[in-house]
Amino acid sequence: MACDIYSEKDPEMTQISIGIPDSFLLESQSLLEKSIKISHLARAASIFRVGNIYIYRDSSTKLDSQDGKIIKIILEYLNTPPYLRKRLFQRMPILQHVGMLPPIKAPHHKAKVPLKDLKIGDVRVGAPVKINGSSYADVGLDKLVQLVKINSGLKKIMVKIMSIEPYITGIEVTKEYLQGYWGYTVVYTNSLKELIRAFKADEIILTSIQGRSISDKGFSAFLGHKIRNIKELLVVFGSPRSGLKGIMKSENVHISDFPFVINMFPNQGTETVRVEEAILGTLSILNKEIGGSNKLDTKNSLNRHSK
Questions:
Q1: Which of 17, 88, 120, 180 has the greatest count of CB atoms below 10 A from its CB?
Q2: CATH of the domain at 268
Q3: 3-state helix, strand, coil in the chain (%, to 5)
Q4: pLDDT values of the chain reduced to their tens digit, one per residue, 307 residues
Q5: How many CB atoms lie under 10 A from the CB of residue 37?
Q6: Which of 135, 104, 106, 141 is closest to 122 using CA atoms?
Q7: What CATH number does residue 149 fall under?
């Protein structure tokens, strides 16, 4: 069903962001295994409209690994509309298996369309291009769009079509003024401590088997009320080898200083819950508590919270 994605912005709703360790791929041996696991993460984040995916350095491991880079690049690749991928991503070994991964098919992954189907007011993801000193954008059309206004200097922008005849022109817009889901932003941080310091303690959910049970109805109701009044909620997950308590201990941070340490799977039937499984299950629970809709904030949240 078609909808107008550029009109009144969504009501103020809690944006969910997630924090995962760079040791997320610790148990995956091959690049193919790693790529598949990252695609599961990208799908889960997109299904539940995650605004930011923070990758933090897991200081509890002594691994000198490139996994953080692999996670970031593949996540960004999968979040990019197919018509822009060749322009924005050069050939590299990290991406050799991406053709086998399931597509996200989020609303911003629009098909390449003929010019006759273009409408004034349409918004598409684009890549800026400089030609003879003038600014244009590739937005998946047969012609480039001449940019009347561009501000961010980013490699990937949102372009609103302003005119079609005699020239196709557009302006750069930001996701905070758009309805619907326009993908996630991936940010790498040097430590878990750096990430959680960018938020207030009651804006963070730490997932842990040692936490308070989400099945506690009184606590669950209180949590639901609380998070519906938070602009951005950060949900942090541990690694396949170390829980959050161990990771935080290695950084001299006390998990007891945070009010929302939650066991999301109190009656689990398996010895462990894999990180990608924990993310999907946790987001499903929180989606219900928030009301099924999240407002997107496209500003760098680490900078915003640090001010």
A1: 17
A2: 3.40.1280.10
A3: 35, 20, 45
A4: 333 333 334 456 788 999 999 999 988 989 999 999 999 999 999 999 999 999 999 988 877 678 999 999 999 999 999 999 999 998 999 999 999 999 998 889 988 888 888 999 999 999 999 998 889 999 999 899 999 877 777 899 999 999 998 889 999 998 877 888 899 999 999 999 999 999 999 899 999 988 888 888 888 788 888 888 888 999 999 988 888 999 999 999 999 899 999 999 988 888 778 899 999 999 998 887 766 444 444 344 455 444 4
A5: 19
A6: 141
A7: 2.40.50.140
Residues 157 and 77 in one domain: no
pTM: 0.87
Same domain assignment for residues 170 and 207: no
Which contiguous run of DSSP H or E holds residue 109? none
Same domain, 168 and 210: no
Helix/strand/coil (H/E/C) assignment for every residue in the chain:
CCCCCCCCCCCCCCEEEEEEEHHHHCCCCCHHHHHHHHHHHHHHHHHCCCCEEEEECCCCCCCCCCHHHHHHHHHHHHHCCHHHHHHHCCCCHHHCCHHHCCCCCCCCCCCCCCHHHCCCCCEEEEEEEEECCEEEEECCCCCCEEEEECCCCCCCEEEEEEECCCCCEEEEECHHHCCCCCCCEEEEECCHHHHHCCCCHHHEEEEEEEEEECCCHHHHHHHHHHHCCCCEEEEECCCCCCCHHHHHHHCCCCHHHCCCEEECCCCCCCCCCCHHHHHHHHHHHHHHHHCCCCCCCCCCHHHHHHC
Q: Maximum Cα–Cα distance for the chain, whole Å? A: 64
| Same-domain pairing of 124 and 212 | no
Tokens of 274: 């894999």
Together in a domain, 211 and 100: yes
